[in-house]
Design goal:
The chain is an alpha/beta fold and about 325 residues long. The chain has eleven helices and twelve strands. Helix 5 links the parallel strand 9 and strand 10.
């Protein structure tokens, strides 16, 4: 495993972070298919034993089930891992989902996450998505108060614009940013990562494998079980991914010639910039964890990554 500095937090974290939606199980919300609780616990501990120290989750992942599984599996090594969770994507008793970053909602969600994680504190607590009805300043003030109480060690922002980030920085210290970042999604590289470097903020990239497209596990004809969010979510079922699949057909030839895999390319692309602290990966088996860790020792050189990026751009697959 390799480790990088998480901005100015003083933390060193594994360059591969564990994406907690993968262990949500069949509970609903945002998750990627069924996984038994016992299997999830063993998987999380296996990830830790193989050097992964950053574990990212959120209440919407399995309607709290991911957090509860984190709490049970990682309790014995709590002081040795960095746990990130989030506020703002909330749900009611009927599991109706909303984005709500009002301070009272933030406080309520934080208290529930602490209970579900069975922890007195959360290392990194992020605003999950911006809420256009609530000024970011009000939300950050609530998070700063939670940090003063010792419930939160570092404040983060996920999926926020550079304008939101600068407004938040004017209210309280922001330590970590999170944004989608992979070979196809380049928005963070254009705007968010330069700001992270300027302000010396940590950066957690998600979507590293682009839901499996970059590894070749997800193709146009892939079917998903009903409890996998990709089976029904409009942002997946209604999206046109044909340019990505076309790009991957071209990239597969490049990788075969160079002697590398899609997984190795995905990690190399995500970690190419030193400002990126960790690349979050969704892993559902110990074999997948081992494969991700092993891939770090065989990343393709910059020229292969650049050729793949050029092929993706030529296919119109980049955003």
């Amino acid at each position: 495993m390799q480790y990088r500095r998480l901005g100015g937090t003083g933390l060193q974290v594994s360059v591969i972070g564990f994406g907690g939606a993968a262990v949500s199980g069949a509970s609903g919300g945002y998750g990627f298919g069924d996984i038994a609780e016992k299997t999830a616990h063993a998987l999380l501990l296996s990830a830790y034993e193989q050097g992964i120290t950053l574990f990212d989750t959120a209440p919407i992942y399995g309607y709290g089930e991911s957090e509860r599984r984190f709490g049970k599996a990682l309790g014995a090594v709590r002081d040795k891992v960095v746990i990130a969770s989030k506020c703002g994507v909330c749900f009611d008793a009927r599991k109706r989902v909303a984005i709500d970053n009002r301070p009272d909602v933030v406080r309520r969600m934080l208290e529930q996450s602490l209970r579900d994680l069975d922890s007195d504190y959360i290392d990194i607590y992020l605003v999950h998505w911006p809420d256009r009805k609530t000024p970011i300043e009000a939300t950050v003030q609530a998070l700063a108060a939670a940090r003063e109480r010792g419930q939160v060690r570092h404040i983060g922002l996920s999926n926020c614009s550079t304008e939101d980030i600068r407004r938040a920085l004017a209210v309280a210290p922001i330590a970590v940013l999170q944004h989608e970042h992979n070979l196809f999604s380049r928005e963070a590289a254009r705007a968010v990562l330069p700001l992270a470097a300027e302000q010396e903020l940590g950066f957690m990239g998600y979507g590293t494998l682009d839901k499996g497209i970059l590894t070749g596990r997800v193709t146009a004809d892939r079917a998903f079980e009903s409890c996998d969010v990709r089976a029904s979510a409009p942002w997946w079922t209604r999206a046109d991914r044909s340019t990505k699949y076309a790009a991957m057909r071209e990239i597969a030839g490049l990788l075969a010639t160079a002697g590398h895999t899609g997984l190795e390319l995905a990690l190399a692309s995500a970690l190419a910039l030193p400002t990126v602290s960790t690349a979050l990966c969704g892993m559902k088996s110990e074999q997948q964890v081992r494969a991700c860790v092993a891939a770090l020792a065989h990343l393709p050189p910059a020229e292969v990554v650049e050729s793949a990026a050029a092929a993706a751009a030529a296919a119109g697959a980049c955003s």
